[in-house]
Queue: 2 jobs
Job 1
Amino acid sequence: MVQELREAGLRVTMARQAVLTWLTVHPHSTADAIAEGVREQFGALSLQAIYGVLAACTDAGLLRRIEPAGHPARFERRVGDNHHHLVCRGCGRTEDVDCVVGERPCLEPVDEHGFVIDEAEVVFWGLCPACQAAGGSMVGTHYHEEEWQ
Ligand SMILES: [Zn+2]
Ligand SMILES: [Zn+2]
Ligand SMILES: [Zn+2]
């Protein structure tokens, strides 16, 4: 951890080590979850301090930030590959899925319109087993009553 921070050109602080350590065990955590977890293990750190650490480590390439539409951002230490995510529409649970191609961009548009394409953002949306078991009631979508019958 110390070496990774140094190689990324970041000063080694307790807060940065604590956040990276937490994310090693709990990938795809939100800032809130990280703050809570880090507090339990390493003592008080303000949410502001956590945000600062996350921003610095993301900028330095030590963390990847994923922002599924309509859900809070999540952070992970698995950087440098083109893996994708499965995201639960209900609870936001996020899982890694390897890219079948491996390199960016793994999809090509039918018409590039002259763009140089460097990335295709792929997110698989669905319902996790827990939310399926809950009958989809945790899903933020509104259903008409008839559709339940
Ligand atoms: Zn879920
Ligand atoms: Zn991931
Ligand atoms: Zn892919």
Job 2
Amino acid sequence: MKHVKPLNFSTSRRSFLRTGLAGPGAVGLLAGALPSAAFADNSPTRGDIDILRFLAAAEIIETDLWQQYNELGGIQDSEVPGGSGNPQYTKALKKLDGDMDQYIHDNTEDELTHFTFINAYLVSKGADPVNLDQFRILPSSTATGAQQIKRLTNLMQLTVDTTWWTRYRSRTKNPDFGDTFPPAIPGLLQGQFPAIPRSNHDLTPTRHIQAIANTAAFHFATIEQGGTSLYPALAQRVTNLEVLRILLSSGPTETAHFQTWHDKAGNIVPLTDPTNGLVFPDLNKSPFGGEDFQTNLIMPEPTVFLSRTLPVCSIIRPTATEGAAMAALKALTDDGLFIGQSQGFFTTLHDLATAADAAQRGF
Ligand SMILES: [Fe+2]
Ligand SMILES: [Fe+2]
């Protein structure tokens, strides 16, 4: 309960200042003992606001990409409006699980609520909400089912990093120790691939639209494992308990998504896309298979955490806090998600990430 005492100090100092009971020397003494973060009574600090603003931006980006998936492969209703569904893409996704459209819908709705809540909370604290509408410049898919509106994200030229697959299966390595991991689908790192049909030309042949659905399935998990790490990483630098509660309550829903998508990605149809040679191998057969690739090993394996001298532990990884916002932005950018975006967009996101990463936990 470290926070209680400093907040009392803070209140005392405020009343001293208000009533003028303390002389300059006393104020100087208190001010010297307290970081500036503790001035307001139980309000979020500047750093808390900066962390929330970066998260709002990340959630707006997530919402934009999930809406594109939902319009074509999810369930369109009053909770997640827009789009009218693409039967061939939806059918290919359902090869992985008959409930894929429901899960896509629900993930999309969750992201909508994440950014809407964070922005409303920012406003309730007198802070500026985040609005990226001016950067909605990217084209929609022209395939049947997609709304014809401008987007923030590009799902048609993805380079999907699937190293989370082996990262969560390793019993000896952790990215927070500098360890690296092989991808589950090496081909997805060696080119730019659509995760939604770009037009109705992408709906055939069958193995091509299935490869697009497979790409989407891995991208779903890639996005959500990122959120799974981002929230605990940033939570370590939050000061205000209520803001901490927001991060600790939202972050695990990203993990719920990731766990689901990890399971579904294991159900992809092994194939080679006849149009571009992209290979989805059978992850249960040689040279894959075993502890690092077997598809039903979807629970996080225990691994090294904090110190190699401590026992292994089943954990989210990575969770190192330094530079976490910028790392998340880099991962999304490397993914190809922002191909075609303006310099203004990158500058805005860079500034939001820089501010969030400058936030320090204060008392
Ligand atoms: Fe989210
Ligand atoms: Fe998410």
